[in-house]
Amino acid sequence: MISASGGVLMRRLLASGGRQRTFILTRVHASPGERTRETNRKDERRDEPQRRISEMNFFISASLAFFVLSIYTAHYIVELHKTTKDSAERDFVSKTSLYVSIEEEEDVSYSPLQQDYYRDSCPSAERIIRKALKEIYKARPSIAPSLIRLLFHDCFIETSSEKEAPPNLSLKGLDVIAFIKSELENTCPGVVSCADTLALATKEAVSLAGGPKYSLRIGRKDSLVTFKDIAQRELPSPHATLSEILARFASRGFSPQETVSLLGAHSIGITHCTFFQDRLYNFSGTGKPDPELNTGFLQELKSKCPFSASASSPSPCPDTASAPSLPASDYHTNYGLSSENQIDGTIDLSFNNEGGVMFSDQQLMASEETETWVRAYASDPLLFQRDFIKSMVKLSSYHVLTGPLGQVRTNCSKVLPLN
Ligand code: HEM
Ligand SMILES: [Ca+2]
């Protein structure tokens, strides 16, 4: 089993080994002192076509190094399979080896899921998902970051149907999952869960955006209940401090290192101005900008996100500081509408590839441990890729329901906000 899946992994990695890629993440969290060096390049990234290019170049590495890693990984999997007999021994081996495979970790920790769960019931499932997403991505490349974010929210709050929960209402990509699910229903009615559809579609999205390919075990079931209260409380805020962020992730079993790797996802996609406006105009109630923002960067951000009283004054909603993942106005006036209907401006999360635009991202530089990982990932794209994938697999498998514990929804669109 392990060597077989390792072979698949290897073929997939090799298949993508020839592409030229650019690594974007890494300057996102660079220190303020380093920001000025790139200020001359920033204007190039402002318009939409440029944004798409940066999305497509999501994550990466020189193809040669990528190649080498994939070979080592596959080799390691094969060797491991030959030499180990039980999981305790495998555990030992994986802890002492430099090259720990994603497959291996998944095998030990998430056994209810399987490599080929729909082999008999819906053999074309993965192909249907891949094909649909490829088409959609061509017309709408922003679907890639949207799905990655959707997966994070869905896994973090443990159910796919928090339709009444404000933080999820603006989540883009739900429509696409509903569409892909309807395609699956045409071929294999009632077989493939919404949770697997999302996990597999997100895997494709990462790859389409230029990120690494990975394999994912499947067989998730959909939840029978919603967790709207959990949804409101448990999603981290863009104003969260490092200790708050680490605590949220730790309570779900993610180490600081894994947390940093996951937040590398903020190297693609957009954020609304609302989520960092206080850093520009009224940081911590001082009436002044965040001193961490250097002058040039601050001016750029201000020109993208002009002062808006509602965003900069203390929130009328006491919960907003600890919970929301969408603009405050969504909470209070446009409840239920997509954030795309907002007047609020947006900015690329990779804007300038410099300091973190969101306070929560910048916070990763606030402790030695997390800063070390930010720098390590910034200087070693392969390490980042590998750890990001491992964390995505872990996230995709967090608290999954399997077997009789869950259901297979026939219609994911019931989680759509406007239905
Ligand atoms: C401390 C934890 C996190 C906070 C506070 C946070 C917050 C946010 C916020 C406020 C936005 C902007 C949304 C908008 O304006 O529409 C955003 C976007 C995004 N987030 Fe996070 N996030 C966190 C962790 C994560 C993780 C773990 C992932 C994935 C593994 C992720 C993936 C994304 C992506 C890809 C986008 C861009 C979405 C798009 O362009 O449509 N985030 N996040
Ligand atoms: Ca969920």
Automatic annotation (TrEMBL):
The keyword Calcium applies. It comes from the Eukaryota. Keywords: Calcium, Disulfide bond, Heme, Hydrogen peroxide, Iron, Membrane, Metal-binding, Oxidoreductase, Peroxidase, Secreted, Transmembrane, Transmembrane helix. Residues 112-416 form the Plant heme peroxidase family profile domain. Residues 29-48 are annotated as: Disordered. Its EC number is 1.11.1.7. Its cofactor is Ca(2+); heme b. Binds 2 calcium ions per subunit. Pfam families: peroxidase. Removal of H(2)O(2), oxidation of toxic reductants, biosynthesis and degradation of lignin, suberization, auxin catabolism, response to environmental stresses such as wounding, pathogen attack and oxidative stress. These functions might be dependent on each isozyme/isoform in each plant tissue. This is Peroxidase.
